[in-house]
Structures are given as C-alpha cells and as structure tokens.
Amino acid sequence: MCGRYNLRTNLHQVAEFFSVLRGKEEVAGIPPRSNTAPTQTVVCIRDPGEAAGREFFAARWGLIPSWAKDAKIGSQCIMARAETVDTKPSFRAAFIRRRCLMIADGFYEWREEDKQPLYVSLKSGQPFAFAAMWEIWDSPEGEVQSCALCTTTANPLMATFSDRMPVILPPAVHAQWLNPQVTDPGQLKPLLAQYPAEDMQVWPVSKRVGNVRNEGPDLIQPMSAQVTLAFPD
Q1: One of 55, 100, 109, 135 is an active-site residue; which one?
Q2: Res 233: pLDDT
C-alpha cells in the first residue's frame, strides 16, 4: 500500500506552498522523481519550534528506531497504521516527539485482482503532505535520519481497490501536526483521518512503474482516457 510515490514539483514552489523558510540546500541534491521507493532519500518538512520556522530536511524512507541494532528494520517500517502508531515500539517515540511532512504530487496503488498500477493525486493538481514521523539512528558511519508515513482506512474512492490509504494532511492542520509542543496522542490521532474522496482522482498507468529502476514523468500518464477512473460527482 503506497509503496511508491511521485514528486516533481520544484523546491521553490514546494517551499512557497508549505511556508518553508530554510533548509533548501539540504534537499537540493534530491532529484525530481516519478517513482520514489522505500530506502531512497526523500524531501521532508519539520518545525523545530524555533523562531526560524519550518525547514526542509532529507530522510531515508523507512524509519529506523533509535534502539535498532542495524538499518535493516527500516525496510519494514515505511508505513505506520494510525490505529497503533502511538503504541507500536518502532513508531511511538517518533510519533510523540518527531513528526514531519513527506511531500508528494501523487502516489501509486496496485489493484489486487489484476495487479494494475493506479496513480492517485489531488484534483487540484497541487502537491500535498503525507502525515509522517522521523527518527535519528546512530550508525557506525554517523547519524541517519529516516522517516515513515501514516496510513488509515480507505475513503470511498480508495476502497474500490484498497482497504488502506496514506494519511494526507490538509493545510489547516499542518501547524498542529508539526508543533513539537503537542505530545498528547488524544490531540494528534484525530488528525490521521481519511482525505475527502471527492477531492482526489485516480487513473491506470503503465506497469513499468513496478520496476524502481524505471523513472520519468511518462510513468504517471493515463493508459487511456477511456479507462480513467474517477470518483463520481
């Protein structure tokens, strides 16, 4: 579920849209990707709680808990269920203390019955933020920053091909999610809700996206207008 996503919007636009004031140099080396996969370095946003405001930072997708003996656990921790994120040992500390946004233009899902890949995005065409968490792991080579996104039950559109969906946070709750002073799960877990189905769109794309080595904006092109899927108005 949501094991791949797309981010090709340039950093200047992302910074403007998400009110990011610093850190662009840290993520400048991350290339635009149409097929971002776990273990790759991705663009994230956090708020250290300082007057300087929100900042970009780079993190490996696949959270490595601070207590991990090696990095292998990260490949099993790319997503956290909203129902258990505050109690599961791999995620609970990051959920309480180190929340962030993972930025995307859209993401991919695979329809179970025929393994058809589908591209999901907002009807507005704007980039959006996955609810995510980050952690620091002390490796023999130095500190590693890693992250994981949250998932919840599928909305009516997503439920036509999946029982889960990533949590997409509307801009109105970004400040609360990022606020390091908010540590009460009772205030945080209600934010992990379904995004409105009527504001999303989906269409079938090439099975080339299944190979992480394939890259390029052609991966998100609809297979044909005749088979485009959309939530009914």
Answers
A1: 109
A2: 42
